[in-house]
Amino acid sequence: MKFDFLFQSSPWFILLCLLAGAIYAFVLYQISPTPWNKSTNRLLAACRFVGVSLICLLLLNFLIRQVTQSVQKRTLVLAIDNSQSMGVANKQTLNGVLSQLESLKEKLQEEDFEISWATLDGQNPEKATDIQFNQKSTNLSSLLSGIKNAQEGNNLSDVVLLSDGIVNEGINPSSEKFTFTVHTVGLGDTIPKKDIAVKSVYANKIAYLGNKFPVQADISAYGFQGKTVSVYLKQGGKVLEKQVINFQQKDDLKTVTFNALASQKGVQHFVVQVDVLGGEFSSKNNQQDVYVEVIDGKEKVLLMALSPHPDIKAIKSMLDKNENFEIDVKILTENPFPDLSNKNYDVLILHQLPDYFNSYLNIYKPLLDKGIPTLFVLGNQTGTTYLNQLNQVMRINSQAGQTDKVTGYYNGNFKSLNFEAESLDLIKQFPQVSVPFGDITLLPNSEVILYQKIGSLQTQKPLFAINSGPKKSAIFAGEGLWTWRLEEFDLTEKQELIDDIFLKVVQFLSAKDDKRKLRVYPISNEFLLSDKVVFETEIYNGIYEKMYNIPVALELKDEKGRVRKYNYTPSADNSKFEISALPAGVYQYKANASVLGKNEQSTGEFIVKDLQVELSNTTADFDLLRQLSAQTGGKFLSASQLSQLEKQILAHKAPEKIEANEDLKEFINLKWVFFLIIALLTTEWVVRKYMGGY
């Protein structure tokens, strides 16, 4: 601990304070003769000198800085890989290792270590033997990074990691840099086990009703060379297709492809299963589930343009990235009378329409009158006067042929769609596009995504805006989108930024407005077997204000037709409802509530998945653990060598970490100074009175 004095005025004033005290004492106690002796006179003079000097020092109001330093205890974290593959190991061996780690914790605590536990799922057990080995995947990189973040500021010197080295999620932990030493303890069998497994299954997430789609599966086998097995594609317990494969090597991998038919709408649950042969280590990994959403047709987008233009191809390339869009392109100068009678379009994109002369109004006006959500993409041939009569986004006061050159910048206050503001800064580097020159006024319910940037000047003129009113629409006021995509590829070797903006805007336009008074929906379309299924509930009155405390009846139906019923009442504090321990599968749900005397209903579906990644590979990988320890200066130990770990940790002479705390106090606020001054002056007064002085 040390003290410093911080002066708000010149420290030379201290001498004046002492001089004032000295003069006061000298003048008062040089009177002769006195009724007391010289020793008493000196004592009284000292009391007066110190008291007056302290009072003067209070006027300076200087600061006292107190710095306290302490050496932090060394911190050690015992990290446990509590995944399912660890549970495959010998139970007796695993429990023995956990007991040894518990003993190690007690011994190191006696050596003045701070000890804590860490697991994949953040369990905080009192004892190691309380840890549940039930995690569906292993991400050691995330585990170690979480320890690093949680122990920031502490003197973390060592981490002991108990694992089998099997990583099936995240990156290789040995590729990261850690500031602490990682000692690894390997548990498990590094010898491959005789087994057949469905290693992985691949299928498109979306298929269209009536179409066939591929389901591809990788089947691995160890120790079954020369054996033949059957692989099945099943749905609802019924075999849809069967294939026979033969394993020719001791360690073999075969790929099979099935062609499934999307025969009904909704999420469809398929199972890829392989025969169980005698002598297999485990039969739990002989099947895997796959879920495919079957939809009835695509969203139909009509891209209608005045004349050929590079922007048209750019827009079509963006939309082609979404498999759920079916795009029709109509160029009116090439085909002035397109046949639009056979399709009901969900979104209309008008490029440079209306033009100066409003030539093709009779073609697209009937589509606008139907209320089809529309995206207007402007250009040098756009007739802004006619555009103002047709759109609900903005009014443009511009003369024909008058244009300006601008680029764009993102509106940080735009919240209707999710964009990463930092990545959108790249737009500022894009080439200029041509926009109408003049005043632009936003209309009600309109929001700006991109503003115009002229040179280095960021204006408040909209470049890209959407309107979320009764007739959803949007306007991109520039010509030259194709140059933006080229520039983005030149800068990043990708075409994602601009494509993402346009795709989300078109998805926003194509989304159907939900006018239901009761909306019950799961927070995700997919849950893991260990997750709670969480439903969000929204109830509205006639003017779409939220209502609460209305009972809701929720019914779940699984693939086998079994029904589960629940009742709950959402409140303003909690509008969610949680369901635990649902088996894997596809569930259809139906919610009912009486809203203002009328029965309202909300329906949908969701998936509960049972991941089998931990069981698809149970062969321990000690090489990964050795590499991790070597890189961080730690030691790899097998379960039988665990007794050496205490010696390794104590032998690691980590640098001490000193923690310093600084405390600033004003001298005038110190209570002891006040009482000292009172004590000095009181002592002086009492002595003088006792000795007969005045």
TrEMBL record:
The keyword Acetylation does not apply. InterPro entries: vWFA_dom_sf. The chain crosses the membrane at residues 12-31, 43-64. The keyword Membrane applies. Signal peptide: none annotated. It comes from the Bacteria. Keywords: Membrane, Transmembrane, Transmembrane helix. This is VWA domain-containing protein.
